[in-house]
Amino acid sequence: MCGIVGYIGHREAYPVILKGLKRLEYRGYDSAGVALINGGLKVYKKKGKVAELEEEVIGKDLRGHIGIGHTRWATHGEPSDRNAHPHLSNSGEFAMIHNGIIENYVSIKNDLLKKGYTFKSDTDTEVFLNFIEDIKKNNGGTLEEALRIALKRIVGAYCILLIDQNDPETIIAARKGSPLVIGIGKGEHFLASDASPIIEYTKEVVYVNDYEIAIVRPDELILKNLGNEKQTPFITKLDMELAAIEKGGYEHFMLKEINEQPETIHDCLRGRLLPDSGQIIMSGIDDHLNELKNAQRMVIVACGTSWHAGLIAEYIIEELCRIPVEVEYASEFRYRNPVVNKGDVIIAISQSGETADTLVALGSAKEKGAFIFGVVNAVGSSIARLSDAGAYSHAGPEIGVASTKAFTGQLAVLTMMALKLGHAKGTIDEDRYIGLMKELEAVPEKVRLILEDTSNIKRIAEKYKDAHDFLFLGRGYNFPVALEGALKLKEISYIHAEGYPAAEMKHGPIALVDENLPVVFVATKDSYYEKIVSNVQEIKARKGKVIAVATEGDDVIPAMADDVMLVPDADEIIAPLLSVVPLQLLSYYVGIAKGLDVDKPRNLAKSVTVE
Ligand code: G6P
After folding, report:
1. CA-to-CA distance for 69 and 16, rounded, in angstroms?
2. The pairing of beta strand 297-302 with beta strand 344-350
3. Spatial separation of the C-alpha atoms in residues 567 and 485, rounded to whole Å
4. At the N or C end, where does the chain have fewer CB atoms within 10 A?
5. For residue 570, which of 559, 584, 586, 581 has the smallest C-alpha distance?
6. Rounded mean pLDDT of 443-469?
7. Residue 241's pLDDT is what?
C-alpha cells in the first residue's frame, strides 16, 4: 500500500503533489510527507491524514519544481512523524519514498550500524536509502548505479522515488511488485502509484514494469532494466475522466460508488451481453475458448471482497459449466505448495490489480504452467498485465476503501463468463441460457429500484448501530453474500460481524444468539427458501433480532423478521447482484450513524501491495 507521487517540470511541485496525495489517500493514510528541492532539500512530514500535513506546512517554504510525496500505511514502525516518508539519507543529500517491504532490512541495517550509520526511524525504507548511499560512497559511481546495485541485493517489494539535492533535474524511480505510472507532459513528468494524480495534466502514461529503473527529467524519460539496458517506454492513452475520481455531489465516495452501480453494471454488460442474438462477446474468452471450456479444474485466487465474488462464481461455474472450482485465499494458495497442473485455469479476481498476495500467487501458478484469466477493474494494472487473458469489470475508479461497485462488476463478469462457457460446452440448455441473459440484463434497473428509497435501510442502521456483534447468514448463492455483508459492516462500522452458512449456524454460532444479537438473513426466494425460513424460526425461538433481506412480494419472511430490506425478484444465480446492495447500504449508514470515516476506515487500505 502507500501512495507515492512525484513531479518534475515547470510548475510548482508542491500543489501537484498535495492534490495527488489526496487522490491516493485510499492507499494508506496514517502519515504523509513531501520532499522538495529548492536550493537544498526541504522535507515536511506529519502523522495523520494528508490534511494534517497541509496544516503543518502553512507558512513554510514550499517552492521547488521537483518533489516527491507519500501517504503511508505503516508496515515497519508505528504511524508517527519520524516514521513518515520521505526519509533522508545520513548525509542529508538524498530523499526517498517507498511503497513496499524490504524483507532483508534487518541484516542490512546491522551492517550499516557497524559502519556508523544512524537511523531516525524504525522503517525499512530508511535502511534501504542508506544502503544506497553506502554503496555510492564505496563505489564512487552515480546514484543510479548505486541504486541498481542495491536493488540486486535487497529482497522484497518496492516502488521508490529518489531525489538528490545536488541534482534538481532528476527523479530516479524503480519498481518491483508495487505499481508506478509515469505521466508524460510537455517539459514535465508526473509519477504516481496510479493514474488518478496524473489524469488532469496528461492522458499519456507509461506503466513501469517490475525490475525497471526510470530516470525522469523535465524533458526526458529513460527506462532501463537492472542490467542497465535501455527499454523502450510503451506509452498508453488513459481512458479515464477526472469526474470519475471526484465525489460528484455525494458526501462520501462509498455512497457515490454504491449509487453508481446501475450504471457500472450496465457498462460492464454493454456490448458483451446480447440476449437478442443469444451471444456473449468477451474477447478474452473468445480468443482462448478451448483452454477455458476444457479446463480440468478452475482455481479462483483472490483476497477480501474479491474472494467473496470468487465464492459466488464457484457456485455459478459449477452449476452452469460442470467444471470443478476451488476458491483460494491468495495468501494461503501462494505459500502452501498447491498442486497446479497444466490444463488448470487460475482465475484471479482483483479490483486494484495490484494486491501483492494475488500477484505473487499468480506468478507461481504461471510458472507451473497454469493458464491465468484475470478479472480486474484497474486497467493496465499488474495483474491485468500478468494474465494470459481476462475481462475488465469496467466499474471505473473505486476510491472508497470498502469495495462496492467493483464487487458487483466482478459478479457481472463472472456470471457472463459462466454463461458463455456453459453454452459453449453444452452444459446449459438454450432456454436457460437466454433466460439468464435476460435476467442479467435487467439487473441495472433492479439495482436502481433498490437505491431509489434507502430511508428504511437508514432507519434500520440507526436502530442497530450500538450492537456489539452481528451475525450474517445465507445459503447457496446468498451464503457468500452473507460473508460480504459481515465484512462490509466490520470494515465500515468496526462492529464485530460474522458471516456463516445459515444451516451451519446450528453448529456453534447459535450459542451467541440472545435478544441483543442482530442476525441478518439473506433470504431471497430461491431453491433454499424453505430451509432458510426454518433457520429464521430457529433464531426467533431464541429471541434473536432478525433483519432480513427478502424478495418483494414475499409475505412469510417479512412476517417473521423484526426488520426487512426488500429486493426485486430474480433468478437465484443473479440474486447476489441485488441482495448485496442493501447490505452495502446498511454498513454505510451504520458507519455514518457512528460518526466514522466511511471512506477511510481505520487500519485499512484499498490497495494492499504488501504480502
Ligand atoms: C483490501 C481492500 C478490500 C479488497 C481487498 C482485495 O483489503 O480493502 O476492499 O477487497 O483488498 O483487493 P483487490 O484490489 O485485489 O480486489
Report:
1. 10
2. parallel
3. 15
4. C
5. 581
6. 97
7. 79
Cα–Cα nearest to 295, from 430, 429, 422:
422
Q: Considering only CA atoms, which of 312, 292, 283 is closest in space to residue 425? A: 292
CA dist 173 and 582 (Å) reads 44
> What is the rounded distance in angstroms from the CA atom of residue 599 to the CA atom of residue 23?
12
State the first-to-last Cα distance of the chain, in angstroms, to the nearest integer. Answer: 10
Who's near 563: CB < 8 A, 6+ residues apart? Answer: 460, 463, 545, 546, 547, 548
Is-contact 315 296, C-beta < 8 A?
no
335 pLDDT more than 90:
no
pLDDT band at 249 (very low <50, low <70, confident <90, very high): confident
- Count Cα neighbours of 3 within 13 Å in the Cβ-side half-sphere: 31
Grid coordinates given for 130: 542508506
Residue nearest to atom 5 of ligand 1 (CA): 304
- 2 given a catalytic annotation: yes
Our mutation pick for probing the ligand 1 site, out of 331, 334, 403, 413, counting the most ligand atoms within 8 A of Cβ, is: 403
Mean pLDDT within 351-378: 91
- What's the whole-model pTM score? 0.83
In this predicted structure, the answer to whether residue 240 has a pLDDT above a threshold of 80 is no
Residue 268 falls in the annotated catalytic set: no
Residue 68: CB atoms within 10 A of its CB come to 29
User: Strands, DSSP E only, in 39-168?
Assistant: 40-47, 66-72, 87-88, 94-102, 156-164
Cα 438 from chain centroid (whole Å): 30
CA of 607 to the centre of ligand 1 (A): 6
How wide is the angle at C-alpha 328 spanned by C-alphas 325 and 334, nearest 5°? 125
- Give the span between the Cα atoms of 409 and 333, in whole angstroms: 24
- State the cell numbers at 96: 526517498
- Cα 171 off chain centre by: 27
Q: Which residues line ligand 1 (CB under 6 A)?
A: 303-306, 350-352, 355, 358, 401-403, 604, 606, 608
Q: Which residue CA neighbors atom 3 of ligand 1 most closely? A: 304
Q: Tell me the three state secondary structure of residue 551.
A: strand
Burial of residue 29 (number of CB atoms within 10 Å: 0-12, 13-18, 19+): buried
Determine the distance from the C-alpha atom of residue 545 to the mean position of all C-alpha atoms in its chain, rounded to a whole number. 33
* Contact indicator for 211, 176 with CB cutoff of 8 Å: yes
Which residue puts its alpha carbon closest to atom 2 of ligand 1?
606
C-alpha cell belonging to residue 606:
484499498
State the distance from the centre of ligand 1 to the C-alpha of 605, rounded, in angstroms: 8
Contacts of 529 (CB under 8 A, 6+ apart): 523
Average pLDDT over residues 187-208: 95
d(CA 173, CA 434): 51
- In order, the DSSP letters of 165-196 are TT-TT-EEEEEEBS--EEEE-SS-EEEESSST
Catalytic residue among 42, 525, 545, 606: 606
Encoded amino acid at 131, one letter: F
Lookup: cell for 27: 492507499
Q: Is 436 helix (H, G, I), strand (E, B) or coil?
A: helix
381, 549, 550, 583 from 474: Cα distances, Å:
33, 10, 11, 12
Joined together, the cell numbers standing for residue 515 give: 435478544
